């Protein structure tokens, strides 16, 4: 596998058809080109997406943490539902200063509050072999009505796309 996100060929050859149990509550499971999944829960749906926590310290720790947070919630926002919960796993190098952690976490807290996202659960620790910029992972959740979900699998050539800000983050 090459660096970065798996391509369509890798997905088709190694992931598709090997996604665990078939469940009736899964509305959108692993699909190439869809960066989130959707499950039904009671009268709502939950969209979820997982991404690496990528803190590129060369940007300055606060700016890098801002990008890291927004990368973690952006894929679930593609569902059309607002991000609501974030589970964060930080696997930091053993020599990480407490001040570095605090700077990252302060940004995550501030941005989460601004967007109405609860930092709901997670894991934090230092481990040999871990290094910046990739220092963990996060799973974002969004809750809403099934009819409000927008999936990229329904897009057709010629559809109009409205971009309200810059592409991606």
Describe the fold and architecture.
Helices cover 25% and strands 29% of the residues. α2 runs parallel beside α3. The protein is globular, with a radius of gyration of 17 Å. It has one domain (9-146): PurM-like, N-terminal domain (60s Ribosomal Protein L30, Chain: A, 2-Layer Sandwich). The chain has 169 residues and is of the alpha+beta class. It has helices at residues 8-15, 61-77, 98-115; strands spanning 26-28, 37-41, 44-54, 83-92, 118-126, 134-144. It is built from three helices and six strands, in the order αβββαβαββ. The model has no long low-confidence stretch (mean pLDDT 92). A six-stranded mixed sheet has the order 1-2-3-6-4-5, covered by helices on one side. The protein starts with 7 loop residues before the first helix and ends in a 25-residue tail after the last strand.
């Amino acid at each position: 596998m090459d660096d970065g996100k798996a391509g369509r060929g890798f997905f088709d050859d190694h992931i598709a058809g090997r996604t665990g149990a078939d469940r009736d509550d899964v509305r959108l499971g692993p699909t190439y080109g869809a960066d989130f999944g959707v499950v039904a829960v009671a009268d709502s749906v939950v969209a979820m997406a997982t991404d690496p926590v990528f803190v590129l310290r060369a940007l300055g720790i606060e700016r890098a943490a801002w990008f890291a947070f927004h990368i973690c919630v952006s894929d679930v926002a593609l569902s059309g539902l607002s991000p609501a919960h974030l589970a964060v796993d930080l696997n930091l190098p053993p020599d990480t200063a407490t001040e570095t952690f605090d700077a990252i976490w302060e940004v995550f807290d501030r941005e989460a509050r601004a967007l109405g996202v609860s930092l709901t659960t997670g894991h934090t620790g230092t481990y040999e072999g871990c290094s910046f910029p990739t220092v963990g992972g996060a799973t974002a959740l969004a809750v809403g009505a099934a009819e409000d979900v927008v999936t990229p699998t329904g897009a057709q050539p010629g559809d109009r796309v409205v971009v309200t800000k810059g592409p991606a983050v």
